[in-house]
Specification:
- It contains six helices and six strands.
- By secondary structure, the chain is an alpha/beta fold.
- A six-stranded mixed β-sheet has the order 3-2-4-1-5-6.
- It is globular.
- It starts with a strand and ends with a strand.
């Protein structure tokens, strides 16, 4: 296997009303004011990312819109592929609930940084452990189909945590301790010797 380099970017901040509830795999819009205010961050990303590269987004419009904004700030435009297996964690019946309306008693104690424990799933949704399995399989597949290439992926906080957890072989509760901020860059490499994490949650400079 040739070495494949992954550049994982979390999508931009979603609009204010969406931030008031759990949106998971709901297709919510980005914050228009923040798109304008963070123009220097987009320019920094456009200059930082490798050229040429294969680009991938998820089926949710917030990832494509983020990619399009990076192109608008200096990266030569390409047509991204769509990778469904790198979508956000599904929160099932909890999606659309305001944060204060979550069920008061969970089967397990909530995680310090997430409403669910790593192995717990909301009704009709998926656990973080399942996200790691799903995303890990996708990353292995992409490492082969894009062998020897740089791959820029605009994805989601949960999926990026899943990719890093797969690379490091850590469990879901540990993965949830990782901060993955909007527009942050995390870099992974897959070589014949295995996975290597180069950086996590690097924020583009001004």
């Amino acid at each position: 296997m040739m070495e494949t380099s992954f550049w994982l970017i979390r999508h931009a901040l979603v609009e204010e009303n969406a931030r008031a509830f759990l949106y998971g795999v709901m297709d919510v819009a980005l914050c228009e004011a923040t798109l304008l205010e963070q123009a220097p961050m987009y320019r920094s990303l456009a200059a930082r990312l490798p050229r040429p590269a294969d680009w991938l987004v998820t089926p949710l419009s917030r990832t494509r819109r983020t990619a399009e904004t990076i192109f608008a700030h200096g990266y030569p435009r390409v047509e991204p592929g769509v990778e469904p297996d790198l979508i956000e964690q599904s929160l099932g019946e909890w999606q659309g609930l305001p944060h204060h309306a979550l069920p008061p008693k969970l089967l397990q104690p909530a995680h310090a940084f997430w409403p669910l424990a790593g192995d717990e799933k909301p009704p009709g949704g998926e656990s973080m452990a399942e996200v790691i399995t799903r995303v890990g399989a996708a990353m292995e597949r992409l490492a082969e189909t894009h062998a020897g290439r740089d791959v820029v992926i605009v994805s989601h906080g949960g999926a990026i945590r899943g990719a890093i957890a797969h690379a490091l072989r850590i469990g879901p509760d540990s993965a949830l301790h990782m901060s993955i901020q909007n527009l942050s860059l995390s870099r992974l490499q897959r070589s014949p010797d295995g996975w290597r994490v180069q950086c996590v949650n690097e924020l583009p400079g001004y």
